[in-house]
Amino acid sequence: MRGFLIAAAATVVAFGRPAHLHAQSTTASPASPASPAARDSFAQALDKERATSAGRSLPTADRFTWGDLTVPAGATVDGPVAAAHGTVHVRGNVIGDVFAFGGDVVVHQGGDVDGSALAVRGRVILEGGHVRGDMRSAAPPGVAAAAASPALTGSAAVQHSLKLMAAWLAVVLLVGLGVILFSSAQLETVVQTLESRFSTALFVGIASQLAVLPVLALLCVGLALTLVGILLIPFALVAFVLALVGVLTLGTLAAVTVAGHGIVREGPNVRIRSLRSLVVGTVLLALPWFAVALLVNSPWGETLARIVAVAITWVAGTAGLGAAMMARGGVRRVHVYVPAVEVSNSGWQTPTPIGGVIAARRPPAATPTGTPR
């Protein structure tokens, strides 16, 4: 009788106290157990994540349950509650933190997390529940980007590359149109300089590229000698960069215009001819880049085409930069030495002006073409 009373009292106490369950007792068994290789891979990924500042609070691998894990309604579980490659469903109370690696943390109606909720390669979702601590979603570098935009292959990759090239071509043409409308004289000056002295412009462009950083450093050092100059250093840096970009843009547009002059010989006026030459030259210099876009599925072909495209673009941009520097941004015409052509004196023999008649060039004697009678 005494044993029966003790058993009955124990039963009443067991049913009367709140349920404090261990996290492992609420685990839903996965459809198939994880292989040792999968667990080793998970342990390595977990160690890398724990080495970051965002993953310092993650527990060790032995505290994770493989697969989905559920905290049932009305149950109280001591944390941490952690699931690997599964979703944690919280319907009861968790005294501590909840973690999911490769899955989501879902706090349902009536669920309560006394600590924080962290989902690595997943999300923290509230469906009527409550999380008293922080809610964070983390992903290793490159994982989120790869999931959001998978690598394109086949015709999709080619179409994407062609669209990018078409967009860049449109941007260059719009910038060139603006330069022709508002700075056609400067552009024409740089074009003439590049046409007449291409080799010199190329060497000047290379020297200008090598001198960018030293000149910038000297500028900063010179301004730092005075108190006012120190305050002007940020503005000087911005002005220097803008001037360099402007000169480089003007020179590159001049280079593509020169390339277009080989096909566009004439035009109603200077602006129309410059516009036609700019369009034709831009398309010509863009052809190697379109070849790169078409060969995007061939690693070797794309690499070779890209090398050729970069080389052609660099030569055009460097020569244009040198011509723009020689012409001082198109505000100074560069003198071109043209060898003198000897003219026969006989063609310039004129009669002495008499009675106010202005001397003129004597026309050559006509050669008779008819047959004398």
What do you see in this structure?
- This protein has 373 residues and is an alpha/beta fold.
- The strands form 3 sheets. Strands 1-4-7-10-13 form a 5-stranded parallel sheet, with no helix packed on it.
- It folds into 2 domains: 16-141, no CATH class; 154-326, no CATH class.
- The chain starts with a helix and ends in a 47-residue tail after the last helix.
- The protein has 8 helices and 14 strands.
- The protein has helices at 2-16, 36-50, 143-148, 154-196, 198-223, 227-261, 270-294, 299-326; strands at 20-21, 65-66, 69-71, 76-78, 81-84, 88-90, 93-95, 98-101, 105-107, 112-113, 117-120, 124-126, 130-131, 135-138.
- Mean pLDDT is 77; it is low at 1-32 and 141-150.
- The longest helix has 43 residues, at 154-196.
The description of the largest β-sheet is: 5 strands, parallel
Rg result: 40 Å
Mean pLDDT: 77
Helix content: 40-55%
Count of separate structural domains = 2
Spell out the blueprint of helices and strands.
Elements: H1 2-16, E1 20-21, H2 36-50, E2 65-66, E3 69-71, E4 76-78, E5 81-84, E6 88-90, E7 93-95, E8 98-101, E9 105-107, E10 112-113, E11 117-120, E12 124-126, E13 130-131, E14 135-138, H3 143-148, H4 154-196, H5 198-223, H6 227-261, H7 270-294, H8 299-326
Parallel strand pairs: 1-4, 2-5, 3-6, 4-7, 5-8, 6-9, 7-10, 8-11, 9-12, 10-13, 11-14
Helix pairs in contact: 4-6, 4-7, 4-8, 5-6, 5-8, 6-7, 6-8, 7-8
